[in-house]
Structure formats: C-alpha cells, structure tokens
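Hello forum,

I keep getting stuck at the same step: I have a sequence, I want structure tokens, and every attempt I make locally crashes halfway through. Rather than fight my setup again tonight, could one of you with a working pipeline run this one for me? It's a single chain of 143 residues.
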Amino acid sequence: MRQRIIVCPLILNKGAILLCRMPQDRGVFPGQWALSGGGLEAGERLEEGLRREIAEELGKDLVIENIKPWTFRDDIRTKTYADGSQELIHMIYLIFDCVSSNRLISLNEEFEEYAWVDPADLVSYDLNEATRQTLRERGFLTP
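Reply #2:
Ran it on my machine without issues. Output:
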C-alpha cells in the first residue's frame, strides 16, 4: 500500500469556508464536496507544498495571507482514477488554517465546482467524510 502526505488548506474569507466538489468519476470521494489539497512532493517543505497545491487547484489569483498549522490525522482510502482503476492509499492529512484576502478562484480539472460557504449552510452540502470530520473538529459543524 502506498502512503501519501496530503497538505490540506481550510481556507476562510470573511467568515466563509471554501469548498470544492470532486468530479463524479474519480478521486477518493467522487462527487462530494471537500477541502482542496493534495500530495506533498519529495523534498518539498510543508508551506511550499501547500501553496503549490493551492495555486495548482485553485489558481494563482487566490491570495493566501495567513497560514497556520492546525491538526493532522491519517486514514486508509480507495482512490479511483479517470481510467476506472483503483488504488488503496494510506493518507496522512496535514491540515492548515488559512485566510485569503480575496475569492478569486480558477479551478483545475481536479474539481467541478466551488463555493464559499457560510458555516450555518454547511449542512446542506454533501460533504465527504474526511471534510465533515475536519469541520466538526474545527467547530464549524455540530456532531
């Protein structure tokens, strides 16, 4: 089983949380809403990898003005690829509190849609299990 270190930003702007919807046909949580983030590359420093992932997935115009390490956890998940193949991965999540100074998003192919969500409206989104746990632990969702 392959192991991946995932850097995951919990991005806030004016009290709203950035969520992204995964494509229906691939990923670890197909079709569900999630936080952005991705795998740390070999030799990459944590903040460097986090900023790279943000730029790749959300675009270079999103300005992150504050990054603070928040928590970590791990999980074993099955990832589905665009060709339909699957892989079991041990995922180590490093989650960061982030504040953006704008809402300028340009999604890449890893997500189908994005939304800036008021915490009171989170219950109306089909959140994946990992995101739901993160938001619950952070106090944005009640158990």
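The helical segments are 46-58, 129-137. If your local run keeps crashing, start a new thread with the error log.
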